[in-house]
Amino acid sequence: MRKWLPLFAACLGTxxxxxxxxxxxxxxxxxxxDLNAGLSGLQWVVDGYxxxxxxxxxxxxxxxxxVGAKRAYLAGLTVFAVxxxxxxxxxxxxxxIAARALQGxxxxxxxxxxxxxxxxxxxxxxxxxxxxxxxxxxxxAAGIGVVLGGVLTEALSWRWIFFVNLPIAVLAIALTATVFxxxxxxxxxxxxxxGMLAFATAATAVTYGVIRGGEHGWTDTAALTAxxxxxxxxxxxxxxxxxxxxxxxxxxxxxxxxxxxxxFGAFGQTFAAFASTPLISLxxxxxxxMSPLHAGLAMLPMAATAFLVAGAFGxxxxxxxxxxxxxAGLVVVGLGTGLLTLTGTGxxxxxxxxxxxxxxxxxxxxxxxxxxxxxAAVPPRQGGTAAGAVNTARQLGLALGVAVLGxxxxxxxxxxxxxxxxxxxxxxxxxxxxxxxxxxxxxLIAFGLFHWQRADVEPAGAEPExxxx
Length: 469
Hints:
The protein is mainly alpha-helical and 469 residues long. It contains 20 helices and no strands.
């Protein structure tokens, strides 16, 4: 039993950081009341975490190589715990958003190191069991998050969705410190700080500009300035990565069609499938007056379907060309999101179920292949970078998706009138329509870019993050 304690410690951290992507969704209405937060504030509660994960995942992987994966994982757990305490104790929306961003910093350090720790700890058949268990925990996190968030918010308060992390983090820290051997440190690995700063500035500025423009109009000076800064920072990122000696994301990888298609698939998946869930939570609780627990259960069919489809057909899909798993799978996600537009003013939560089931089917086909296909498309020595880039694209899709869909919703639901149930539903349907379009269009782009054959997804010498994920 003792030999599985390292796996338990790694899964605890992974479960915490991934649950916190979704656990906050069902608590948003209560947060809005307690902290007097508007829609833009609620968007940042979600996006602060997602942006920090997206901006730091790749660079913290390099830093972990320099200081050792164990040290980096312990530091990430500590930061995550402190930030969770700050989230739970927040007395204003601004404080909560800042603490959520700090949570994302800790989560990025944890996410970048768990698989390296497992790879160094286990060998042979045990390594396969460890990676499989870690993958199952990761897959179940979304479903656990919405239900657990509902239970804690309803039984205690929204603050406990963050306080619950504290005992878990303490246990994970104690186990990690004792059961993992010291990690190898690679002082030769450089950290691309300029690239990280440019990427973080670009992602944050564009997200802020979209949210600000939706709230204050597209002629607002702050919104235009932020969008311009985002464009400049994007160009700077391209310049830094093309000329740097050790870029966190070698731009040459984008010349590979299969890898580029995988990034389209990863970005489009989270945008189309998950970016609308904060709005759905608001509709279920504010308009339909459901409890947080019932709202969480109402959103569970998507995650449950994805889990069942991936488990039942994963082996069959392993040898299927990514054109079909990632490309066509994302189109299915888009079509499922399109079904959500059938929601009307007289609809109950049941109206969401057909769309959720179709989305779940698409995710169950699409998600398991993303990282393995992205890794297979690049040279083995860049497998870890490819895996990190795919996960970064996922978080970026979520962050920008929440910003864009919230802006679309606001523009339709509050267009010169007080928000009533019909206006709320109109805004919701408009957001669903945009998300569905992104899913279908990005899926078709990926479908067109991918080659027909299925590449070998475990090239010799690939880094553990790539092989395992």
